[in-house]
Amino acid sequence: MSVYKAQRNPSKAEFLTTAKKLFIFTIKLSKKFPKSYKFNMYQDLYNLTRDISLSVFQANSYYVSKTMSQEEYEKRLSHLYIARSKIYALTFMVSTVYEYIREGNNFLGTKEQVNNIFQDWVDLITTERKLISGVIQDTKKRYKKYQNELKE
Predict the structure, then answer these.
(1) pLDDT on residue 5
(2) Which of 150, 137, 152 minimizes the C-alpha distance to 69?
(3) Buried b vs exposed e over 41-80: b needs ≥16 C-beta within 10 Å?
(4) Is-above-0.85 flag for pTM?
């Protein structure tokens, strides 16, 4: 049975694929950066997106279940919190780069092309931020539910 697109829920693993898309998008964009920007501007963007991807994949290695220990639960949340904080830092960096490019250092093309590139980038960042926040809430809810079941 098929479900209308508007009624579909995000996949439980969508936060992983979106993190990977964000990382790949940043890598591809780096090829357009001049060499003089690679070490002071691009390197931070690359490191943030890499850290986001690694953190969500590390968090995903801890599966929420009845047998999950408190330590595993805390490690999963810790990785998710790190990813979420890096998302906010990435948002700041992308907005800073956007402002810098708009001042006339336009190596990405016309204003319309730049706006489209940054809109796609911000859309990926926003989607990933929402997904990570949802996974954090879901992790807490499921862990609490399993703990209550074990007490009964």
Answers:
(1) 58
(2) 150
(3) bbebbbebbbbbbbbbebbbebebeeebeeebbeebbebb
(4) yes
**58 dihedral zone (left: phi>0; alpha: psi -120 to 50; beta):** alpha
pLDDT in tens, 55-81: 999 999 999 998 999 999 999 999 999
Give CA–CA dist 124/29, Å, rounded: 14
- Core vs surface per residue 91-105: b (16+ CB within 10 A) or e: bebbeebbeebeeee
Give the SS3 label for residue 72: helix
Question: In this predicted structure, what is the pLDDT of residue 4?
Answer: 63
Q: Residue 8 in 3-state DSSP? A: coil
Alpha helices in 43-151 (DSSP H): 43-60, 70-102, 111-151
Q: Which amino acid is at 25?
A: F
Tokens for 29, please give them: 């964009």
DSSP, collapsed to helix, strand or coil, labels residue 101 as helix
**How many other C-beta atoms can be found within 10 angstroms of the C-beta atom of residue 138?**
12
Whether 6 contacts 112, CB under 8 Å: no
- DSSP code for 42: I
Residue numbers in the chain where pLDDT is lower than 70: 1-12, 105, 152
